């Protein structure tokens, strides 16, 4: 099974987008950043990964976009087993997913349209595809009215919407977000949450690692909680959880 | 493929413009370095041409004993043709030598031959040309071995002049070669440093390209294109400057053709010089940017 064999949209024959099989990640000799994690995320699902700072949320996502290899166990994404940097075809994998971070990473000397188009140009897309996909992606995140604005002319929430549009412009079946609302005020965060929800409604599998309690509580989606690298809770429709504190 | 090429060139252009002052510094350094590089290489090449044209000028004259028979002279000439380094051998019989002397007498209005009466005191002579000229001294020395060549009375070579010429050419070759090599390295270092700064300036772009699935080659593409730009445009500017300097100076020097400079083949043409300089710039730019990428891009 190769990544590029997959056509867009959920595939009945292979419903599991992400599988973690007894995954452990040890950066050093100390306590592993993840230990013995098992989980399955199905095609088209919306999942929050929650937990205190240092619980292992970012590490879990890095495994999925193959920025990191598991020390033990297996990570399978879209039917492909990822064996770390050497073993996985990073370009092919990342064309099948979008990734969004807390530090947004727009290019300051390019406007909104060019920032989103950049992701397509990098993978060799032509003008026609760019002219078709970029407005669609901007429409989806509610930024279609400001294609000529430069990042410094936008609020943090608007910049994050553009970053999400850039992640989605190639219509990947999977969107990963690591603390997408980390720097935003609560109202703006809810706006981002709604955008992510809309993207999921359109069929994209969404995984969000977050600290943002109001957002998680409001959306009532599947919640996976990590604590000190262990999976301690997995609820189909849950909230942020009372026990999480950064002092843990 | 076409879109990718456009993207790579556009990104390289953006980066060159964004760091305008630095790009200008890099380009002018590369231009000056390639000018000096090309200039010394040109000088070296001309010197090589000059030296290579000298075997015809330097020859060894071998004078035989006066009492040698003609047969012995011809036999000796035949043996000399087989010596290593000997390019050509010509026999000047005593009769030809006397005729030459008569012509000289007429030209200079002297009376040496008349004073001789009917006696020809001149010996047979064998003129030898040696190639490469460096071997000339060794050949002359071997002919001076009177045990091996009892027929030979004297050997004359223009040893002092030749050695001076060869020493000068070695010196110029070594100094010029070192300068050229140093400049080549320095140019490479300049391009590398510029690209290191470019990689730093492009770190956001590079991170995003990685994230959205750019291939390694595409991430490197704009950087290599920028390095090649400095190399090729620097070579072009250096070539134009060099060509105009050389055509001007040869026009000027042409009025003072020294006898020594006659018979040297013409220098390389401007298109050939330009082409070689461009090739050097291209290789330099591509290789150094590739090295910079390997060093600074993980
Ligand atoms: N590159 C790294 N090298 C060493 N330790 C790391 C590295 N990244 C994360 N860690 C450690 O791994 C643990 C989990 O980190 P992380 O996955 O970033 O947690 P979270 O995203 O939930 O805050 C923490 O203890 C952190 O200090
Ligand atoms: Mg984190």
Provide mean pLDDT of chain A, rounded: 88
CATH C-level name of chain A:
Alpha Beta
**Category by helix and strand content of chain B:** alpha+beta
SSE order of chain A, one letter for each helix or strand: EEEHEEHHEHHHEHEHEE
Q: Please describe the biggest sheet of chain B, giving its number of strands, its sense, and whether it closes into a barrel.
A: 4 strands, antiparallel
pLDDT < 50 runs, ≥5 residues of chain B: none
CATH fold-level topology of chain A: Rossmann fold
Q: What ranges of chain A have pLDDT less than 50 throughout 5 or more consecutive residues?
A: 1-10
What is the straight-line distance between the termini of chain A? 42 Å
Cα shape of chain B: elongated
Q: Helix count of chain A, per DSSP?
A: 8
Gyration radius over CA of chain B: 31 Å
Beta-strand percent range of chain B = 5-15%
Output mean pLDDT of chain B.
83
Largest sheet of chain A: 6 strands, mixed
Relative helix content of chain B: 55-70%
Strand content range of chain A = 25-35%
**Portion of residues within helices of chain A:** 25-40%
Domains of chain B, number: 2
CATH homologous superfamily placement of chain A: P-loop containing nucleotide triphosphate hydrolases
Task: Name the bound molecules.
Answer: adenosine-5'-diphosphate, magnesium ion
């Amino acid at each position: 099974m190769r990544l590029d064999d997959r056509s867009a949209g959920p595939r009945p024959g292979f419903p599991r987008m992400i599988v973690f099989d007894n995954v452990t990640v040890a950066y050093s000799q100390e306590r592993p950043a993840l230990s013995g994690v098992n989980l399955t995320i199905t095609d088209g699902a919306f999942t929050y990964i929650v937990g205190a700072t240092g619980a292992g949320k970012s590490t879990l996502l890095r495994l999925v976009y193959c920025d990191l290899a598991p020390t033990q166990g297996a990570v399978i994404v879209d039917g492909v087993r990822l064996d770390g940097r050497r073993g996985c075809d990073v370009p092919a994998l990342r064309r099948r997913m979008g990734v969004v971070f807390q530090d947004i990473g727009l290019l300051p000397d390019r406007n909104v349209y060019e920032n989103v188009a950049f992701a397509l140009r990098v993978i060799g897309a032509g003008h026609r595809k760019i002219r078709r996909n970029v407005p669609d992606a901007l429409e989806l995140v509610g930024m279609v009215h400001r294609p000529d604005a430069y990042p410094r002319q936008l609020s943090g929430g608007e910049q994050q919407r553009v970053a999400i549009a850039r992640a989605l412009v190639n219509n990947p079946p999977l969107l990963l977000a690591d603390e997408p609302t980390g720097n935003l005020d609560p109202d703006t965060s809810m706006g981002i949450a709604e955008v992510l929800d809309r993207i999921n409604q359109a069929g994209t599998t969404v995984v969000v690692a977050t600290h943002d309690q109001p957002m998680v509580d409001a959306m009532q989606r599947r919640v996976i909680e990590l604590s000190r690298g262990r999976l301690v809770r997995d609820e189909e429709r849950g909230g942020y959880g009372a026990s999480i504190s950064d002092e843990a | 493929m076409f879109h990718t090429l456009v993207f790579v060139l556009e990104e390289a252009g953006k980066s060159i413009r964004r760091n305008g002052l630095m790009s200008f510094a890099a380009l002018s350094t590369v231009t000056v370095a390639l000018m000096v590089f090309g200039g010394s290489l040109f000088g070296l090449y001309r010197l090589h041409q000059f030296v290579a044209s000298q075997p015809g000028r330097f020859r060894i004259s071998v004078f035989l004993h006066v009492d040698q028979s003609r047969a012995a002279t011809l036999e000796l000439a035949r043996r000399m043709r087989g010596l290593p380094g000997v390019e050509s051998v010509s026999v000047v019989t005593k009769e030809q030598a006397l005729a030459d002397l008569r012509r000289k007498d007429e030209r200079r209005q002297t009376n040496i031959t008349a004073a001789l009466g009917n006696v020809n005191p001149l010996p047979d002579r064998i003129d030898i040309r040696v190639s490469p000229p460096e071997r000339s001294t060794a050949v002359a020395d071997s002919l001076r071995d009177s045990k091996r060549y009892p027929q030979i009375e004297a050997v004359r070579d223009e040893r002092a002049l030749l050695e001076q010429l060869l020493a000068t050419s070695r010196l110029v070759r070594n100094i010029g070669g070192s300068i050229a090599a140093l400049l080549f390295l320095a140019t490479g270092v300049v391009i590398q440093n510029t690209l290191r700064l470019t990689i730093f300036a492009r770190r956001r772009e590079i991170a995003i390209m990685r994230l959205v699935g750019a291939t390694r080659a595409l991430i490197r593409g704009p950087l290599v294109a920028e390095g090649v730009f400095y190399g090729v445009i620097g070579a072009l500017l250096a070539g134009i400057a060099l060509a105009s300097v050389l055509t001007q100076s040869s026009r000027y020097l042409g009025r003072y053709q020294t006898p020594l400079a006659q018979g040297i083949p013409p220098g390389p043409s401007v298109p050939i010089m330009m082409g070689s300089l461009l090739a050097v710039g291209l290789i330099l730019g591509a290789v150094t940017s590739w090295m910079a990428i390997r060093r600074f891009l993980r």
